[in-house]
What we know:
Layout (H helix, E strand, L loop, with lengths): L3 E2 L2 H23 L4 E7 L3 H17 L2 E7 L5 H12 L6 E4 L9 H7 L11 H9 L7 H12 L8 E5 L6 H10 L3 E5 L6 H5 L4 E4 L17 E4 L3 E2 L5 E2 L4 H5 L4 E2 L6 H21 L4
Parallel strand pairs: 1-11, 2-3, 2-4, 5-6, 5-7, 7-8, 8-11
Antiparallel strand pairs: 9-10
Helix pairs in contact: 1-10, 2-10, 6-7, 6-10
The site of guanine has 9 residues, from β4 and α6.
Amino acid sequence: MAGRLIDGKEISAQIKAELAQEVAKMQKESDVTPGLAVVLVGEDPASKVYVGQKEKACAELGIFSQKHTLPADVSEEELLGLVGSLNSDPQIDGILVQLPLPKHIDENKVIEAIMPEKDVDGFHPVSVGKMVIGLPGFRPCTPAGVMELLKRTGVDLVGKEAVVVGRSNIVGKPVAIMLLQQSATVTVCHSKTKNLSEVTRRADVLVVATGKPNTVTADMVKDGVVVIDVGVNRLDSGKLVGDVDFDGVREKASAITPVPGGVGPMTIAMLMYNTVQAAKKRAGILI
Ligand code: GUN
């Protein structure tokens, strides 16, 4: 029997509705409007789409947003200067520099220039360190979205075998840490893993973030697995697919995320969540 769909669109809409209420309350009681600055460098088409989605979500929730578009040949110095001025702008609670950046710019340097209090992407080493030791702080949006999907689907993680395929700084590594924090037994696989299917077949919960279609097929999972597919791949045919063979794996899964409409909308919802948290701190609602 086909597993049930984990509807990221529906769950993200719910989160955004909750946040819109919080924004309205904050404005009424503290006269604070959350503000997000999004910085886009160059003309990467996917980045343009993502930035557009982030601005749209801000508008829906009553969050003030500011877009800064810089040419692909902007100097690192100029970009760092913009980040510096956003750091000291009292209207801005969150700063997001859309990645990837052009090759002549050092991404790590830019990430580290964002003050940790405004690091709504959760990429700053201070945020990463806090996550690893379980302190409050900004969590990166896509892994946080994965965890929220599991939570709101009622998936109990305690003592479960969780397998993560992919070890990127943006998804694989942080989601592994977050699963561990929830007391799952976590295994991280990657391109050099020997006998991948032997490991994935152990999974009660399988998170796939490799950026490669068909990384996981039906023969690689056990019956009843919960599958979270983080991939977004455009096939030559124009079709958008994840990293998992959805139709095949769904037959064995108890629950699975679709692509599109799974993790994608959750990333945006968690960015909005982080921005609202940052503004709450400014309003003195959170300590
Ligand atoms: N590029 C792909 N995903 C992300 C993300 O979550 N944040 C930023 N800033 N850039 C990205």
